[in-house]
Amino acid sequence: MRKLSFLLLPMLLSGCTVAVAYGDVPHNRLVENPRCNPSQNDNAAIAGKDHFIVTSRLPDCRDDTIILTNHRTDRVRYARFAPPQKIKPLKRDAQMVVPLAFQPEDAWWDSLRDAANLRKGRVLLYVHGYRETLQTTARDAVQIGAMSNFDGPIIHYSWPSQGNLFSYAVDETNMYWDERNFRNFLTKLARTEWVKEVVIVSHSLGARLVIPAVEYVDRTSTNADSSNISNIILASPDMDREDFERDIAEEILAARRVNNDRRVTVYASLSDRALALSRAVHGYPRLGSPYCFSPFEARELKAKGLPQRCFATKTKYQTELAKTGFTIIDTTDVSGGGTGHSDYLRSFAVCKDFAAVVNGARTTEDRVATKDAHVFTLRPPVKPKKEDIAAMCKSLPD
């Protein structure tokens, strides 16, 4: 993987990317079937589809199976989905499909209300990152719900990532294009009376959608203390570390919000090769990677016999330790392998901690304190087997 990184780096730095192809069919034809824009709720179509999805991807409703493409759409759509399923057409390799059915927006919100009211008004919102398709992100959303045993409806926000290794610039562009769509949705969700608590989980590039949107909701909220967005979890966030420290945390982690139970948990790893490449592209460290930008700071840590890892600092807007609003979990030593970019779904130790945090835990028995009061490592488990990891992380078949 290290050799691959060196090969990919010049292409990323030079702006090499895969162009977005319009396709062979006019986009308006993809959505002309009423299934794409239902005027009435179809109970038969949504039966068995217990997960909620909001998407700015362009759908293709020409066939019985609705597909979400990698293109932008003219409007945000609301749908329900079931866990991905494998199908094996004749003379073709097995494919993963996501059973999906759109709902009228009002009917979707009514369905979400009914589901949330059964679970004390708690909802979980998942926002994916770079290089994803509906198949991969729907699988992750289902896994997050199963792993945490979350006691409320799961909402998956799907923006038009290209699902392609060489389309980082396109994904970044689409993410910024989608800021208003996501901000409007989050604002309505947070201000809906029957939504008592919003737990947000974002991965990678998704943090750059989530954090500005939360900041907007906070800034425009009529509630002087806080919105009901209380638990924000950033897994491997691909955003500028200094930007978060200087500007973003000022509003999101303001003392009055922290005192009202607002907290942000970051899962970061120096083994994260994807964020190492992102740092090379953007020039500065990412929030999800404890890379020491200053060589002098790195040398000082080494001289003290400490790991050469540098993290986002706590801000002046923090309150007493019992109500700390900012926690970083350093997963470097318990990485789940691969690129180290999805430890929250791949590592036994991280999955266990992540599941607890989703359900409101502020600390866990496996956390180990570091020199920084807001930074913790995780105690490595005793050589877990693949089946143990799969059971803890509730991994779904590829």
UniProtKB/TrEMBL annotation:
SUPFAM superfamilies: alpha/beta-Hydrolases. Keywords: Hydrolase, Signal. GO terms for molecular function: hydrolase activity. InterPro entries: AB_hydrolase_fold (IPR029058), DUF900_hydrolase (IPR010297). Residues 1-21 form the signal peptide. The keyword Hydrolase applies. This is Alpha/beta hydrolase.
